[in-house]
Amino acid sequence: MTPLGLALLVIGAVVAVAEAHYPTQGIAGGIGVALMALGTVLAITGLGGAVAVALLAGGALAAVGASAVVFSAKRAGAVRHLRVRTGAEGIIGHIGTVQKWADSSGSVAVDGALWQARRSLGPDDQDGGVAELHAGDKIVVEHLSGLTLSVRPAEEWELL
């Protein structure tokens, strides 16, 4: 029983560590903890320990491991709901300043970088009454397509 218990301990630890590298929402971690708890019970009883001591040690290991898996799964779930802050999606909603503008496109400065931009048409702009943008106007990034931003004029409440 001792070699089987030790093997289960090692396999359980490997499966639990694999959870950190291959997110399975706690499934691999839970299986790893269960294997380690079973391996502990088998190893202790195989070495001549009392069954009660083996069950107590296995239960303690299972409780600590399960709480660690639940804690990590909760934290991982919370991270999924955070707003994107970097990359292409991270620039959406940022405020910038028009540098040059002609007709419906120009260049804008957003977060210290100069971008090519085009005017984003909103529901109020469908009738052709598009307000022209001028150098110095504040804009809000609505979309990113390649290296071109779609922008609209910033409203007063967005500048506060």
Structure classification: alpha+beta
Mean pLDDT: 88
**Succession of helices and strands:** HHHHEEEEE
Number of strands: 5
Question: What percentage of residues falls in helices of 4 or more residues?
Answer: 40-55%
Largest sheet, order of strands side by side?
Answer: 1-2-3-5-4
Briefly, what is this?
The protein has helices spanning 2-21, 27-46, 51-79, 87-90; strands at residues 95-102, 105-110, 113-119, 138-145, 148-153. The protein is of the alpha+beta class and 160 residues long. Strands 1-2-3-5-4 form a five-stranded mixed β-barrel.
Structural notes for this entry:
- With 160 residues, the protein is an alpha+beta fold.
- The protein has two domains: 78 residues; 69 residues, OB fold (Dihydrolipoamide Acetyltransferase, E2P) (Beta Barrel), CATH 2.40.50.
- It is 46% helix and 22% strand.
- It contains four helices and five strands; from the N terminus they run ααααβββββ.
- Strands 1-2-3-5-4 form a five-stranded mixed barrel.
- Strand 1 and strand 2 form a beta hairpin.
- Helix 1 runs antiparallel to helix 2.
- The longest helix is centred in the middle third of the chain and has 29 residues.
- The model has no long low-confidence stretch (mean pLDDT 88).
How is this fold's topology laid out?
Blueprint: H1 2-21, H2 27-46, H3 51-79, H4 87-90, E1 95-102, E2 105-110, E3 113-119, E4 138-145, E5 148-153
Parallel strand pairs: 3-5
Antiparallel strand pairs: 1-2, 1-4, 2-3, 4-5
Helix pairs in contact: 1-2, 2-3
